[in-house]
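3.2 Worked example (two chains)
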Amino acid sequence: MGHGIAHVMLRAGHHVILLDTSQAFVDAGAKRIAKGLARDVEKARLTEDQRAQAVSRLKTTTVPVDLASSDFIIEAVTEKFEAKAGVFRSLEGYSRPETIFVSNTSSISITRLAAATGRPSKFVGLHFFNPVPVMKLVEVVPGLQTAPETVERAIALAESAGKTAVRVNDFPGFVSNRVLMPMINEAVFCLMEGVADAAGIDNVMKLGMNHPMGPLELADLIGLDVCRDIMLVLYESFHDSKYRPCPLLGKMVAAGWLGCKSGRGFYEYPQK
């Protein structure tokens, strides 16, 4: 998600600083961004000159102080509260007071994350969708203390990158994952209970419901660990058994079968 968000911001003409915990990670991210921008040229979305300019606007770093001049800091780490809050806490001292903090969380309360910082009025959620360069939607999620000006600037940022910004309220899972993840979870229950095999479940939803991807294919793309974590957020937030993660989902995560990124999930993926 991080390199995808950086990609669309560069493509839109913004300057981007990519921060991660090691040089290997930022180098890998920069390589993927460069590859994505080259694909934009092949698809006639950018000219070669625009691609070169976009690449020149990217800086990579492992040093938080390099973010000091940023207007926005967008977090895109694992879907766990402490990990996300820890990122923002660590960057607080390196950021200007007017810098807006943005979380790409897909389920965690923006109000709760904002409260972990010293700038709740300048904290907002922008939930991008995977793959970011292709998907048009961004959910814009204000927290309880988010200032109206912060929301307006976040919407403007998303729209500058060619996205359709839809404002939603700060409830667990927002709209997208409150609807999507229980469907994926129920598909995993169908598989566990032998209602059909994975391909059969996916084909029913693609051919019968006109979904472009089946729920198990989509889960593999998202990452089964991410799906499990989001279901846990919903279950712990609402205390409703309908959000209980399927035991098979937990087993697969424990086995390291996380989907596309690990080479195996509900399907197998040859690793390059």
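3.2.1 Second chain
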Amino acid sequence: MVEIEIGVLRGQCLDRRIDDPEHLVREIAAWQRQRNDAGARIKWMFTIEKARTKMGRAYPRTAKESESL
């Protein structure tokens, strides 16, 4: 999700040269305020089951989940 947000930041805010670090900080803060005020969200469509199918070791079943199988 962080990578998605960084991509959005890059496309919406950092798509031009900003050569002053203080200006960069102000631009990012303004972009962040606007994004938060708009209630921007990421629609996460990758379910736990899909994650387990693709990357089973990274998403092991909990003891409780294993009992219900």
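3.3 Remarks
The mean pLDDT is 87.
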